[in-house]
Fold this sequence. Notes:
Distance between the termini: 47 Å
Number of domains: 1
Largest sheet: 2 strands, antiparallel
Low-confidence stretches: 188-238
Amino acid sequence: MGVENLTALKQAIREAREREYAAMSRMHLKRRLLDALAERCDFPVPESTANNEFEAIWKSVSEELERNKDALEEAGKSEDELRAEYRTIAERRVRLGLFLSEVGRMNNIDVTQEDLNRAVVTEARRFPGREREVVDHYQKHRETMESLRAPVFEDKVVNFILELARVTERKVSLEEMLKATNEEEALGDLEADAGKKKAAAEKKAGAKEKAAAMSEPGGESAPKAPSIKSAAATKKTK
């Protein structure tokens, strides 16, 4: 595990869980914020952009339907109903992406090299004992580091908006957060990275890809641990 003794191992596990809890709480807060923003954003979106977003989403859905022949029956929906549902999601993603990008532009929000370096450190911490290996990979593959620019930009814009929002924090049990997490995963977190594609275009970021070292269990696609503390943004902003 890359640690000297049992005490150090316990401390490393404790710190890792705390980071996972904080990340889950952050994801929950961000989703609540995006939900509130989506209710307020009702401007039309470019049809071609929405079509492209829908096709990207539907490609993934189609692959899942192909793998699971009973998915439609389990969902209790027809393919046309699913297409309509995901079309709405696609338009929401594009609309939120445009909104976040414009907020960032108007408020001179940019991603610095220091921001990218911090993001690399955060990624490295997800792999205890292999931090140096992960950092080296990002340093040697500039395009991989640049792939962090879009999500970092989005997070900075979200942080900016949260500073203007009234946020209420409350402590919850592990079980309660697990339930909320499972419900959100069941709904699908397709919108959580709403601004990534638009921000990537604005910032001329490369296509997002992950290091080979991160393709193993515990990487981005693995379920995350729940957060003991949850925060919910109210819909009223300044």
